[in-house]
RNA sequence: GUGGCUAUGGUGUAGCGGUAGCACAACAGGUUGUGGUCCUGUUAGCACGGGUUCGAUUCCCGUUAGCCACCCCA
């Protein structure tokens, strides 16, 4: 440090950085928040691995058609929430607004139908939607999700729901959510299409008492008519035909079986006729986990079966189910519930030094400490011992190693117990083992290549 | 896309039509190589643009941003 910081007198007008903030709806994840993200990711990976899911990362952007063709033109996501742009050759690309489309595209592109079925994948990635931000809703947000492709059985549905439930339990927030579940049938003529036809007929001619949006819904996405929040529309919806009365035999059986399986697993659910979800590709099972405490954004995660999607995207008919959850919303809930998260960011040892030779030795020592798993920092720029110890205190380290001129001369170092305020002088080459001794083997942060890190 | 609320140092906040305090944080000291407490000091602010006014941080309008809600979902 220079002794006269006042020497830097001339004050050039600095450019203002007020314009250089994050764009609307996106945020930095600062260290304190990362403790939550890291923990959450760890739980997800652990549980996914246990269940045989393997991780996939699809690109952050894809051709716009990947999303248009899967999610559906009339969905809110595609019609008004996508971050689309043209590249230098005029191709339309889009930042991924959700995870399933990319996974299915990848399944086809890499011929995963030749893998042992079902293919079970999970992802943890940022997603992007252009929407007005508010609590629990951001333009870039983290989602994790699971997809199971190539198998149709209600047991798969039950298992994926259970998997999410278990993760919520691990995080200590499972009790704060309810599982909402519904079946929206399949594409067989006598199932959903029949229902939609009757639904249209029911609403036809009643346009005058419907809100503007519902009038377009009638055209493009009649299922959504049922959960409109406008007063008049709610009244209309009450007498409207109900999907459950239209389910084909297969869908009906499937759904009943799923509910039984959930009961067998002790998973409580609420049957919700109005749950239809905003993506076009769902069939049969749809579900969401709802929270009471995340403001208006009460859906913390959701998913469903999409038996028609792989075929729709150009593959062989392949049944599949998926699920995704919002990490910000889960973390919000954890914070509100007062849940704290274990962290490994704490520092074991601070190395204080005085004089150039000591600094040299300190640098060397710190590297050695780190190699045996002792997390350490040193104030390599700070001059006075006093200041260095103050910094050590701020790191809340249990021990500080002090090396000054005397210690360098004697070939020793001081190990100071910060809590007791006591210290002892040890030979320099005994510092390592002394610290391991007082910290305890099990506290060390050792890196082992065998450790599973992905 | 629509609506509501808000905008004071890094953070959290007071305040008044006559240009701003406080707390925390940061930084520096409290003699010679020892932290946390304490004491002292320093740094740093009225989002931007317009209007009303002798004068605006304070009142009005606009912009921008943030938050919340609608909508939709994660």
**Which second-level CATH architecture of the largest domain applies?**
2-Layer Sandwich
Q: Which homologous superfamily in CATH is the superfamily of the largest domain?
A: Bira Bifunctional Protein, Domain 2
Specify the biggest β-sheet. Answer: 8 strands, mixed
The helix content is: 25-40%
Strand content: 15-25%
Instruction: Enumerate how many helices there are, as a single number.
Output: 15
What spatial form do the alpha-carbon principal axes imply?
elongated
Structural summary, described in words:
This protein has 454 residues and is of the alpha+beta class. It has 2 domains: 31-191 and 247-336, 2-Layer Sandwich (BirA Bifunctional Protein, domain 2); 349-443, Rossmann fold, CATH 3.40.50.800. The protein has 15 helices and 16 strands. An 8-stranded mixed beta sheet has the order 1-5-6-11-10-9-7-8, with helices on both faces. Helix 1 (31-50) packs antiparallel against helix 5. It is elongated, with a radius of gyration of 29 Å. Residues 1-16 have low confidence and may be disordered.
Give a nutshell description of this structure.
The chain is an alpha+beta fold and 454 residues long. It has helices spanning 31-50, 64-71, 76-80, 100-109, 154-171, 192-203, 212-220, 231-239, 249-264, 309-312, 327-336, 356-371, 385-394, 405-410, 431-439; strands at 54-55, 61-63, 83-86, 92-95, 119-128, 140-149, 177-183, 270-271, 283-291, 299-305, 320-326, 349-353, 376-378, 399-403, 412-417, 422-427.
